[in-house]
Amino acid sequence: MLALAAAQASAAPLTVRVVDSNGRPVNDAVVSLRSGPASRPVPTGNYSVSQKDMQFHPFVLVVPVGAKVSFPNLDPTRHHVYSFSPAKQFELKLFARDQSRSVTFDKPGVVALGCNIHDAMTAYLFVTDNQWTAKTGPNGIVRFADAPNSAGKVSVWHPYLRAKANVVERQLVASERNASFTVALRSPPMAMSDGY
Amino acid sequence: MATNTKRFRSLSARLTVQFALLFAVAMLGVSAALSTFIAGSASRQVESQLQSSGAVYDRLWQQRVRELQGAAQLLSRDYGFRAAVATGDTATMESALGNAAARLRVKTAFIISLDGSVHGLSDLRLAKGAETLWDPLDSGRLQGVAMIGGAPRQLVAAPVMAPNLLGWVVFAADLDEREMRSLERLSAIPLNAGVVVHDGASWKATAGAMQFDAAAGRALESHLKSRDAFEMRVDNEPSITLAKPLETLLPGNEVLLILAYPKAEALAGARKLQLALGLMTLVGLLLAAFATWRAAGRITEPLARLDHAAGRLASGEHVKVHVRGEDELARLATTFNEMSDRIEERERRITQLAFNDVLTGLPNRTMFQQQLEHVYRTASAGDSLVALHCLDLDQFKVINDTLGHPAGDALLIEAGRRIRDVARGHFVARLGGDEFVVLQTVGGDRNAIDRLAENLIEAISRPLNIDGNELMPSTSVGIAIAPADGPDGGTLLRNADLALYRAKEAGRGTFAFFEESLNRRAQDRRRLETDLRLALERGEFELFYQPLFDLESNRIGSFEALIRWNHPERGLVSPIEFIAVAEETGIIVPMGAWALQEACRQASQWPDDIRVAVNVSPVQFQRGGLNETIMQALALSRLQPNRLEIEITESVFLDGSDQILKLLHSLRSIGVRVALDDFGTGYSSLSYLQSFPFDKIKIDRSFIENILTRPGAAAIVAAITELANALGMETTAEGVEDNAQLAELRSRGCSSVQGFLFAKPMQVREVEKLFSEDRAARSVA
Questions:
Q1: How many residue contacts between A and B have a Cβ separation below 8 Å?
Q2: Is the CB of residue B83 less than 8 Å away from at least one CB of chain A?
Q3: Which residues does chain A have within 8 Å of residue B77's beta carbon, measured at their own beta carbons?
Q4: Complex prediction ipTM
Q5: Which of B77, B268, B347, B642 has the most other CB atoms within 10 Å of its CB?
Q6: What chain A residue is nearest to B69 in terms of C-alpha separation?
Q7: Does B367 share its domain with B493?
Q8: Residue B502: which domain range?
């Protein structure tokens, strides 16, 4: 989560809650707010997507543009991490254990990560140039503590969200400080299973 | 079955039809049940074959799906392919698709990206159709049938993940003619496979060149829900059909796989079985009918034979049926045979009684007449002759009377036997009494007739011993020859009889042939008989009187009354001609009575010392009533009985009856004199003279004729005269014609004479004239 401490003259906390069609909170949904001019986030700290137990960790990672993300292989097996996403196309062949390579993401967009060896492994990097961007936790809630106290547009992205580009968005009135999104989700693709 | 009873004239036919009908009902029932079973079984079999073909298709489908799916997945996971898709490298993408399609032998392969765009299809119509697949693909349905580009296609898709979903690789196999043919080839039965789709209005065949009409479409509609086979017309042939709905990807697309089995082919086996069953039923039916007919025949055949035999028995035949086995029918047949035998025996007995003489066993008159008729019916054609021999036994009556009927019967039996022996091969019959006939069939040799007659006479005349009496029978034979001697049997027999009389006249032990003259004589005689009967009524008889001259007193002592017949045409007829006939016919009885009365009446007018002598025939004695006749004549005429003398001949005594002696004694007791006429001829038994005290013996004229020429005759006359004198009887010599005879008789001591020397028989008025002259002479004297 990006915690941008940009003092604003008129700021008020904004809480966005994302639930699925069954009313359950949606984890790993990325919520963005566009309301007036926003400052470009600055990469801070280390960003990494590790491979452990045939899984990417985390599943969804929000990074600012220009962030350098490392891909440590913690598994005893090889991994072949790739992305064909327009935001960033790369492939990393991670042979050895604990081998870590880094990639810098310099364009905003969603980067879908896969492993060419293990199809079940999927992760997403949400590369953003908007400071008001965060992902939900298990409670399905994003809270912008100092969001501008004005009308704006809130968008919700999730890799399984059933919508074009996996995004739904809504205009918020100024007074609206609690937004709730109900989204339809695809079931997670079990791409490799025969039965699909 | 009451109607059947009326309808069938034959028991066998009725049994056959009844049992055959029974068999037919049973067999047709079984046959129908089997046929239904066969048809049902065949239908079930066909349905099961269809279902299994459907199942085969299902498996094929799944196999294909798996194959395509595997291929799609393989392709979709290819890193390079994914890279090409992800980076929009269309050339690489399309070449990879083409490569995979060729490898899988599918015509169409394309990609639908997540944004709905289609890649890899140059055909715009197809591409447009492909776009509609996004929704089902997006909803996770990756295989099924869809109408793409106007044709049903089997689609299999795999998502392209890189790693998130980029789109879908889709392989499309055409459900076309080729596909259907390969499916048909895989089937165990000759299927007709096709695909039909519902275009919203009606069902249309799209593959398999299957044609069906609206009615078939409706049938299809109504059977969609059930998974069972049903019947509809496919390609103008009634077919057993299974409709399998195929999983479709697009809403509104209803696609059916049709598996049709032409009914004619499907049920051909069953039809053959049914035909065979039908044939077997028919053959069975015929066999059953035949067997029943045979069995019925075995039962009814003896009945039919009995029926037939009974019919023949009824029409008079003697029949027997062959008896087989020991059942009721056999017993019936045995009884029938016994009955038939008894009937035949009775008929034989009746025939024998009717046609045979009981005594001799020979055919009787009835049978003879039939035989004679038969001869006349058949003899006219050929040139053979039939001789009828008529026999009777001479003196049979005498033998019968003297030795008794049993002896007579024995003689008849023996005569019959002898005749039969001699006339072997010819028809012999006894007509009654001692009358026998032989019907002799003669070929060319007419002498055979004479020989047979001679043999018959010879055979009969052989001596014979009956009860110790030696008999010397003899016979005469009269012969008439058919057809010359009579136009019919009756005439022939009569003429043979005439010949027999002639033979008898000619002397016993002879035979005579019929001649026409015999017939004329017979006719004369018949006329004589008729005239005789009328003569008495018409008063044509007249008594003549011949005087008997008393040698002692030298005067007429009596007159013998002699009957004369004044025939209106023939004039005076001699008694020699008619007395025999009168005796035979019995006319002698009234004639004799008339003569007695007439003689008595006339004699009563004569002087008291003149007697009248009247001849009495033995027939008059036999017929009875003579005593009364004489009494009546005497009473009516008031003639003194001692003036009446009756003359009888020895033959009166022949039947040996005491009655006659009694009668003679009683006549004599009242004074009537009895003279024995014609003494010396015939038996001339002296025992008669001893048994009855005759008043007079009249010596036969044959002795008088010869009295001067034959010494024997004179000696006999002398002996008779002496005997008569010794017995106290008078004698009269008859037929005295000259004085020498008179002198001789006188010298022999004869009491009286009669003959032409003195007077012929004269009419009564001449007798009376004689008396008046005599009275005149006496008065003169």
A1: 43
A2: yes
A3: 119, 192
A4: 0.74
A5: B77
A6: A194
A7: yes
A8: 356-514
Q: Among B167, B109, B155, which residue's Cα sits nearest to residue B249?
A: B155
- pLDDT tens digits, B222-247: 777 777 788 888 777 888 888 888 88
Which of B157, B174, B191 represents a domain boundary (last residue)? B174
Interface of B with A in 298-327 (CB under 8 A): none
Is residue B754 within 8 A of residue B562, CB to CB? The reply is no
What is the rounded average pLDDT of the residues B29-52? Answer: 84
Q: How far is A185 from chain B (nearest CA, A)?
A: 12
Our CA-based measurement puts residue A186 at a distance from the nearest CA of chain B, in whole angstroms, of 9
> Which tens digits make up the pLDDT trace of B401-457?
888 888 889 999 999 999 999 999 899 999 988 899 999 988 777 788 889 999 999
pLDDT of B672 > 90? The answer is: yes
Total domains in the fold of chain B: 4
Q: Is residue B12 part of a domain?
A: no
Please tell me whether residues B322 and B402 are part of one structural domain.
no
Q: Are residues B451 and B598 in the same domain?
A: no
B164 phi and psi, to 5 degrees? -80, 165
- Please tell me whether residues B509 and B593 are part of one structural domain: no
Q: Given the structure tokens 């009634």, which residue do they identify?
A: B238
- List helix spans (H) across B322-446: 328-355, 365-379, 396-403, 405-422
CB–CB contact A189 B82 (8 Å): no
d(CA B174, CA B152): 7
Tell the burial category of A135 from Cβ atoms under 10 Å away from its Cβ (0-12, 13-18, 19+). buried
pLDDT of residue A68: 92
Chain A interface residues (partner B, CB cutoff 8 A): 82, 84-85, 89, 112-116, 119, 121-122, 124, 159, 164, 189, 191-192, 194, 196
Pairwise CA distance, residues A103 & A61, whole Å: 14
pLDDT tens track for A55-108: 999 999 999 999 999 999 888 888 999 998 888 999 888 776 767 788 999 999
Tell me whether B251 touches chain A (CB under 8 Å). Answer: no
CB-based contact B738:B755 (threshold 8 Å): no
Place of tokens 């007695």: B596
**In-domain check, residue B557:** no
In chain B, the residue whose alpha carbon lies closest to the alpha carbon of A122 is B163
Nearest to A113 among B87, B163, B166 (CB): B163
Smallest CA–CA distance, residue A187 to chain B, in Å, is 10
CB atoms A112 and B164 under 8 Å: yes
How far is the alpha carbon of A122 from chain B, nearest alpha carbon, in Å? 6
Which pair of structure tokens corresponds to residue B464? 């014979």
> In 3D, which of B551, B548, B573, B554 has the Cα closest to residue B563?
B573
Chain A contact present for B755, CB below 8 A: no
Same domain, B480 and B600: no
B163 to A196: CB separation less than 8 angstroms, yes or no: no
The shortest CB-CB distance from A84 to any of B77, B86, B115 is to: B86
The DSSP code sequence of B215-232 is: HHHHHHHHTSS--S-EEE
Does the beta carbon of B719 lie under 8 angstroms from any beta carbon of chain A? no
Is B162 in the A-facing interface, judged by CB distances under 8 Å?
Answer: yes
Contact B717, B699 (CB under 8 A): yes
- Closest alpha carbon within chain B to A80: B79
pLDDT band at residue B340 using 50, 70 and 90 as cut-offs:
confident
Digit-coded pLDDT (tens) for B442-483: 877 778 888 999 999 999 989 988 888 888 888 989 999 887
Q: With contact defined as beta carbons under 8 Å apart, do B203 and B225 qualify?
A: no
Q: Which CATH number do you get for residue B473?
A: 3.30.70.270
- For residue B581, is it within any domain? no
B68 near A CB under 8 A: no
Is B483 among the domain residues? yes
Domains and CATH numbers, chain A: 14-35+132-183 (2.60.40.1120), 47-128 (2.60.40.420)
